[in-house]
């Protein structure tokens, strides 16, 4: 907690940026990802300087920045995403930088070039609700900018945030290059339609001349064409499942809810949460399958909401839920895939295995889900799903314990994280994910202690 005598409170706009799939990219290409991180820092720092923003904290691939103006903070976020769109345009998939941005306006405490308080925490908590390459803002930000910008916004509803006592309304920023109603579009009206808008006084209605025979024929053709479109649309909605409801775009989509820990020991959560995250990472490899990020589903841990409610909030058409029970050297994993539209089980299975077989269980779950959703798997992807970052169960457990300690965001937690990740690397020196998380823990320790 900052020393009250050497700190000052102020209302500030806080922007949080985070690289998408950072850990996964580190696992695939550590050197290449570190270069991307360097490029990201250069781009963000340059734009921050141009908008009088002040970087107050760096956590691995994430940035906290402070602004005196909430509108300037929003414009800075838009410029960052616009610059990255241009940066990514000519680069290969594994060389692109995709980030999410969250912006909140709140009362924060400033001390020693750092910021503390809910204002900082909320910005980081809403960031996962943004799309890759997108921006989310709170209602406090929305009220300040809604009449000062031509941007459009889409409400995402109230969101429960970890360790935050209230649920803020969150909005998605419709970026200019995403908005079909932008003025560069020929279909964009010169003036927005207003209910009850009156005609200008000088405008008079003139008598409408009787239609000619050719005009009648054209009119009948338009009516017949319109009827065909309506019939075709009815068939699509009712017989092919297009239209409203969860994931109205018709694409395959899935949310993996946090698996329930059935283990008696209090420490069972880290193992169960790790299995959930690994399944999400494996499914994210499947082409044409939209997978909700882990940070977006954490809010549903222990929730009483039905899968129908959750699917509607996340806009998905399938849900995977399950449980994990661990007894000594054995583990039981129960998983079931639910089709939201029919409320039927597309697939379900119970695995009773030795703990050393947990990697095989995770791979099998991902493969079965892919088959249930009729996803096409290339031989390369099949081999990748069957592989694991490590085959050492003890190294894997230390890695999961380290991640659990890191998520406490305390000096003691980061020291513990460093200890566990080092233990994982002693057991498996080639464990790339452990190296990535070890780097994050050391970066966070430096931010706290300023010691090298």
Q: What is the CATH architecture assignment of the largest domain?
A: 2-Layer Sandwich
Kindly give the count of domains: 3
CATH class of the largest domain: Alpha Beta
Compute the average pLDDT. Answer: 78
Order of helices and strands: EHHEEHEEHEHEEHEEHEHHEEEHHHHH
Percentage of residues assigned to helices: 40-55%
GO biological process, one term: cAMP biosynthetic process
Organism: marine metagenome
Protein name: Guanylate cyclase domain-containing protein
Domain Guanylate cyclase: 13-127
Verbal overview:
The chain crosses the membrane at residues 219-242. Residues 13-127 form the Guanylate cyclase domain. Residues 185-205 have a biased composition (Basic and acidic residues). This protein is α/β, with parallel strands linked by helices and 452 residues long. The chain has 3 domains: 4-174, 2-Layer Sandwich (Alpha-Beta Plaits), CATH 3.30.70; 252-386, 3-Layer(aba) Sandwich (Rossmann fold); 393-449, Serine Threonine Protein Phosphatase 5, Tetratricopeptide repeat (Alpha Horseshoe). Helices cover 42% and strands 22% of the residues. It has helices spanning 22-28, 30-50, 70-88, 118-126, 139-145, 213-239, 268-283, 294-297, 307-314, 358-372, 379-386, 393-406, 411-427, 432-449, and strands spanning 8-19, 54-59, 62-67, 99-111, 114-116, 135-138, 152-158, 169-174, 252-256, 260-261, 289-291, 318-327, 330-339, 344-354. Strands 1, 2, 3, 4, 5, 6, 7 and 8 form an 8-stranded mixed beta sheet that branches. Helix 1 (22-28) crosses helix 14 (432-449), helix 12 (393-406) runs antiparallel to helix 13 and helix 13 runs antiparallel to helix 14 (432-449). The longest helix is centred in the middle third of the chain and has 27 residues, at 213-239. Mean pLDDT is 78; it is low at 180-209 and 234-249.
